[in-house]
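Quick one - inputs below.
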Amino acid sequence: MSENSQVQLTQSPITTGPSSLIPDMSSWREQWLSALNDPSGFWLDKTKNLLDWAQAPSLGCEGDFWSVQQEPIRWFADGRLNVSVNCVDRHLETRADQAAIIWEADEPGQNVTWTYRDLHEQVCRAANVLTDLGVSAGDRVIIYMGMVPHAAVAMLACARIGAAHSVVFGGFSAEALRDRIIDCGARVVITQDEGRRGGRAVALKSVVDEALSSPEAQVDKVLVYKRTHADLAWDESRDVDWESACSQVSAQHEAQAFAAEHPLFILYTSGSTGRPKGLMHTSGGYLTYTTFTHRAVFDLREGDVYGCVADVGWITGHSYIVYGPLSNGTTTVMFESTPLYPDAGRYWSLVEQHKVNIFYTAPTAIRALAAMGDEFVTKYDLSSLRVLGTVGEPINPEAWEWYYNVVGQGKCALVDTWWQTETGGISLSPLAGVTPTQAGAATLPLPGIQPVLLSPESHLIHGPGEGRLCLNMPWPGQARTVWGDHERFVKTYFSDFPGRYFTGDGCRRDEFGHHWITGRVDDVLNVSGHRMGTAEFEAALITDELVAEAAVVGFPHPVKGQGVCAYLVLRSEDQSFGALSDEILARLQAVVRARIGVHAKLDRTIRIPGLPKTRSGKVMRRILRKVAEGETKALGDVSTLADSAVVEAIIEAASKA
Ligand code: WT7
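Output:
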C-alpha cells in the first residue's frame, strides 16, 4: 500500500454553476474518453462553440508524436480567425460596458478599470501604430514591460495584425533581453519608461537601450509607454512615445483573419542548456485550449471577477491573465505590485476591494504569506471568493491546507493546476466544484490529455507508481516548435521516450489515479515559481575569471520551493574551502544578475577543491544534489569517480558554508 492510502478524498465544497462545461465527474469521464477516442472530433466541436472563426475549420489534428520529427503538429489548419477579435471585438455587442481589465497599481488605492469598449479602442489604436511603424503579419515584436494594461494591449495589438509577440519578463537583464531580441529577429520593441514594484522604480527603457547598444541587436523602433514619466535618454530617430502615437491614429482597425497555425507568440523558457529556447505557440489551437481550460477548471461564471496575480512575462500571464480570460469575456485583474507591499495583506485587500471570485497564485507566495500570520487574511472580507488556484510548482500539504482553510475558509474549491510553458494551458488539475481533491495533488487530466508514467528505461508503469511524466497524444494548446530550431524541439521533448511528449517532471500516481508532481527530473530549477536552468547559472558563473569550474544544483527551500546552490572551483592562491568571502559572493551575485536577471540569485555557495567527475569527465550531479540536501552518508555508488577523495572534501566544505 502506498503512503497515501490513508488519505481521504475531499469532496468539493461548492457545486458547479449554470454555464459549467464539465458539470460533474461523470461528464468529466465522458468528455475525457471522447477526447481520447476522437480528439479531432472532440476539439472541432469545442472550438466551434467557444470561438468565433472567420472560416470554421473542418480539419482537427494533423500529425502525431512520431511525425513531429518531420513537421510540427497542426490543429484546425483550414480554419481562419483573429485572436484579438476573439478576445475583444466579439464581446462588444453584449459587454461593451463591462470591465475587461481591472488594473491594481503598485500604490494601493490607485486602480483603473477598462471596459471592453476601452480595451477595443486601445487595441485598435496600438494596432494602427504598429502598422505605421512598419510591423506586419509574420514579424516579431518584443514586449518588455511591467504589469500595466498596456502590456495586454501590446500583446493583443500584435495578435491583431498577425505579428508574433515575445514577452520578456521585466526582471530579465539587458544581456538576456538582447539574446532574445537577436534570437527571434524582432523588428520592434515595446517597453515602458519604468515599472513600479513594491514602492520602487524598475528600470525598463534603459535596459532596452543597453540591450540595443549591441550591434547584433538592432530593431527599427522602440515604442515606449510612459508609466512614471521619469527623465530618460531618448533617441528621436528610434524611440516613439506610445500615448502621442496612439492619439494620432484612428480608434478603428479592421482586423484580418489569419490561419489557425499562424504564429501567435514566442515565449522563452529555460531548459537544460545555457541557452533559453523560444517555444512557439500558434493561434487557433492555443486559443481554443486556453478558453476551454480557463472556463472548465475555474468553473467560470457570468459576472465573475477573476484575479490571477502572475506576470505577463510568464506563460501563466499569457494564458490566464490575457488570452483565456478575455476570450471568455471575463473581468480580469492585472496586479502591478507584490504580495508583501505595503504589507502581507495586499492580495486579500485586492480581493475585498474588487470582490474577486476566482484567485490564482503560486505556492511560493502562499508559503511566504502563511508565515506572516493569519491576521493579514482574516481582517478582510473574502466572502466573494469561490475558487482558489495554484500553479507553478508542487504545493506542500501545509500550504495547501492554509490556503484552503484560512483564505478559503473551507468554502472554496482549490485547484492545483499542473502545466508548462510548453503545454500552453492547464493539463492536470481538479475542476472546481467537480473533482474530489487531496492536499498537494494535481489530480486528474483535462480532456485531451493522456498522462503516462515511464521508468527511466521506458517501461510503462501501470496503476499506482512513480515515474517520468509523459503525455501520449497531441492537444490543441501545445507548443509547435522551438523558434528557429525544430531539431532542438524534437530532441528535448520527443527523443527520451519516442512517440510521447516528455514533460521533464517526475510524478507519482496513487490508487485513485490522482497525479502528484514530484518536481523536475532534468536540470531545470523552479525557484519561487521561476523556471531557470542550472546550465544558465553555470554559464554565467564561468564568465568570471575567478571561477575555474562551477556546478549548480537545486535544494529544497522552505519558501522558494527550491534554492540555488553553486559549487565553485576558484582560481586563487588561497586554498580555504567552504564559504566564500563577502566580496567574492557579492561579485558572483552581480554576475548572475547581469547575465540572467534580478530573479536569479545564489542561495548557497560552496567553494570546493574540485568537482566530482567520472573518469570520462562527466560531473556526478547526483552527489552534489545529495550534499546540498544535507546528506553526508547515503550518496549512492561513487565507484565510477575518477577521484573518490573529492567527495570527502566536498562534504567538509559544505559543512563550513
Ligand atoms: C514547470 C513548468 C505552468 C505555468 C507556470 C510554470 C512546474 C507547474 C505545477 C504544479 C507541480 C508544477 C513543473 C513544470 N509546475 N505547475 N501545479 N505542481 N509542479 O510554467 O515556467 O513552464 O514551468 O513548473 O515542474 O514542468 P513553466
